Amino acid sequence: MGAAPTMSGRSIGELTSPEITSRIRATSILCLPLGAIEQHGAHLPLNTDVVVAEGVTRRIVLQWGDEFDLWQLPSVPVGLSREHDWAPGTLSLPLVGFVTLLRDLARDIVRALPARNLAIINGHGGNRGVLENLLHEFHGDFGLNACVIHPFDLAQAPSTPAAPDVHGGRNETSIMLALAPAQVRMALVEPPIEAPDQRSLQELIFDRGVTWAWRSNDQRLAHEGIIGDASGATAEQGEAMLGSIVTGAARVLRRLLENQKAINRL
Description:
This protein is about 45% helix and about 10% strand. The chain is of the alpha/beta class. The chain has one domain (about 30-260): 3-Layer(aba) Sandwich (Rossmann fold). The chain has a four-stranded parallel sheet, with helices on both faces. Strand 1 (about 30-35), helix 2 and strand 2 form a beta-alpha-beta unit.
């Protein structure tokens, strides 16, 4: 349990330079794990979002690599984590730096590789809003047909204001128990002393009509940096979620290739 599957030769970094032109095509799909280095309480490591992004990408490539001609790119390990910058160890790029990094990477992908399809597997929710806008720039400025997969939403992981699972809770911990159990300190899991303030949760996080710059050290929302309860996390739940993500990825990858054909007809 938790052993990392091999890449079966579908890692861009494992190819030689001459193999790029013989094995990568315009219709190939490049899969980019995008994570973050940030606090996840006392029981999960700083690189949790990187482990999740890489682990999900690896499983998607193993399952669907031959059918959709998938290739895994090297990971981008640091993202936008200012909501956690109160905690030791959290790294966060400035907004301009994050945008510049991903734009420069997109530009270089087009220069260096024949593939024109990109699937970003995003391990950190804080990256989401900027990525939605960058997709338009990837297409308009570089000719990249791109999408972003958000694993926890694709798995339809349960979370409600009454039972929040926003950061470091049961869902994230369960997936880590499935992917990297040795890195999880379950003995340090502390259930919330009291329930989070329901009004604050609803208004600051779950209200889709307003966006707030909430922070994970806000005691109305979090306990020791965690928004949720990891005490019920299991590797079995994590495996079930991973299976759901991998299954759901097929329709995303199929749509990505359909979009490429439609764009080529315009």
